[in-house]
Amino acid sequence: xxxxxxxxxxxxxxxxxxxxxxxxxxxxxxxxxxxxxxxxxxxxxxxxxxxxxxxxxxxxxxxxxxxxxxxxxxxxxxxxxxxxxxxxxxxxxxxxxxxxxxxxxxxxxxxxxxxxxxxxxxxxxxxxxxxxxxxxxxxxxxxxxxxxxxxxxxxxxxxxxxxxxxxxxxxxxxxxxxxxxxxxxxxxxxxxxxxxxxxxxxxxxxxxxxxxxxxxxxxxxxxxxxxxxxxxxxxxxxxxxxxxx
Amino acid sequence: xxxxxxxxxxxxxxxxxxxxxxxxxxxxxxxxxxxxxxxxxxxxxxxxxxxxxxxxxxxxxxxxxxxxxxxxxxxxxxxxxxxxxxxxxxxxxxxxxxxxxxxxxxxxxxxxxxxxxxxxxxxxxxxxxxxxxxxxxxxxxxxxxxxxxxxxxxxxxxxxxxxxxxxxxxxxxxxxxxxxxxxxxxxxxxxxxxxxxxxxxxxxxxxxxxxxxxxxxxxxxxxxxxxxxxxxxxxxxxxxxxxxx
Lengths: 245, 245
Known about the structure:
Two copies of one chain form a homodimer.
Chain A lengths: L1 E2 L3 E6 L1 H4 L7 H12 L3 E7 L3 H12 L4 E5 L10 H9 L3 E3 L1 H11 L5 H4 L3 E3 L3 E5 L2 E8 L2 E4 L3 H14 E2 L5 E7 L3 H14 L4 E6 L8 E7 L2 H14 L7 E2 L1
Parallel strand pairs in A: 1-10, 2-3, 2-4, 4-9
Antiparallel strand pairs in A: 5-6, 7-8, 8-9, 11-13, 11-14, 12-13
Helix pairs in contact in A: 2-7, 3-4, 8-9
């Protein structure tokens, strides 16, 4: 089990930027990493441009100890993630006999030269197999390369859960109120200054009759989060909050 | 009407990275910009960290002639977009009497000091008003600052449509086939090399009985796109495609 302190997601594909496809993978990844206690500190949505991808990979690899990519691992001309990762590491792509065996098992007698292109992976990459997913995940250094198809992306999150953890678990409480953000600023400022170890979030909801603002308290120490929660509840006017989770 | 050649989106908020909120704004923005012929070439999802935001803003402002931000324009401690934009431009935030007038009109006798914090905007910023939205959009240089609340974000896209255009319109055709990507690589490679002015996209669908791959052809020249479409259709086997859009 490897401990990860900071993760970055690269969502790759022209289709995410020209509106043809709505990304579904960032939220699935964010939820999974949160559950593992791994802070996801940045995500980028990038075009299918190998040079641009390689530059961004190098830049983000220097700042994060986990990179998860989504998309661009298929066999067509616009699948450039594997070659960009190779370029970022200063290696070539070469044919992996282990990957060929996986492809032979998956495609059987339908296997084409097109499919076999997917066996061309960055030199030194590992194939991570998890019990419930037929397709292996290609991992080079700290870069985990996932397919963009949402069903496959979600299925492969299992392999992250098997191998990675954050430094510790997050504790979260949420308070829902009919006060709007403009009526809460003084109380929230007080919370932020008195509880520096707790992250205070404030999320307005404009078209929900049940509440106007959701306030969240997050931290690595459960007692610290509970103490901040008590101060928040004490500071709300009578009749509030609507609910606490 | 200003002509924009390259846009970048900054989606701002810890909640997008820790899984508390699923982003809805990138797709709405991507679709709108596409309709205007404006290429959206990159998007970033970033934390509520003013220093990090200011650095990224400066970096992206040097490479794009339109930046759209989503989130962080409310009145609470975690709303840091306006101050980060000011820092990126090397100016301060100061109270805008024009913005105070808008807030007075919107909140009337419910107006608090908390709400008035939202009148503290980057020096030299303009307030762009569109007929159907009560709230003005704050614009500093090429940076348009939108609220993160999806209903408000979408409503404000009207102001982009009023003021900005891309260099020209995109033409798009889509072909749906039961062939998988591995069976299409040779034909797609041929299309890409013979029609350099057309962008060829290939999108596998894994759990849809009606097709396995969607092929898209995009370009600025309608005849070029139609010629590439004809070559693609001629190259498909009998019984294909399933449909053309």
